[in-house]
Amino acid sequence: MAMQTHDTAAAGHAPAEPGHEPGAAGAHGAAAAGGHESAGGLPQFNFAEWPGQIAWFLIIFFGLMLFIRFFAAPKVGGTIEQREQKIASDIAEARRMKEEADAQAQAASVEAAQARAQAQKVAAEARAKAQAEIAARLAEEETKLAAAGAEAEARIATAREAAMANVHTIAADTAEAIVAKLTGRPASAAELADARG
Fold it and tell me: Could you give the CA distance from residue 128 to residue 121 in angstroms, rounded to a whole number?
């Protein structure tokens, strides 16, 4: 083993110091280059790039504000305004329909009252007409009954007079029959005259 070490040293290859081995130089150079690139950190925290970032931020911000101001906000505002107008229109229409319904209900109640009054008037007229017809018929019947009664009384009086006129004749005939029965002879004219009284 000592011989190999001696041979290596004799060959002119001295042992390399740590960090100076062959191949280590390339790795060290790459690491140094990478360390130089990453020394700045994130671009947002690099003060050298802030002016460009601020400029882009302002461009995007004002572009977004202009889009909202001229496109989005009017559309949303118009929708809200249309909705409010629709609600107001619906409320006005509902109020108008309620007023029309109230007016129709009031007109219907007035018509019902008029119809009730008309019906009562017609009923009263019909009742008065019926009572007048009944009174007229009663008067007509009473007139007929009075006429029939007068006629009956006249017939009775005529019959009574006829009967009274016949009473004397019947009395004379009866007296003649009685005299003939009792005496066996017919009664004389003087006796019949006395019987008639």
Answer: 10
84's tokens = 């409010």
Flag residues of the chain having pLDDT under 50.
1-14, 16, 19-20, 22-39
Question: What long-range pairs does 35-40 form, CB within 8 A, spacing at least 24?
Answer: none
Report how far Cα 77 is from the mean position of its chain's Cα atoms.
36
- What's the 3-state SS for 92-126? HHHHHHHHHHHHHHHHHHHHHHHHHHHHHHHHHHH
Q: What's the farthest any 2 CA atoms get from each other in the chain?
A: 233
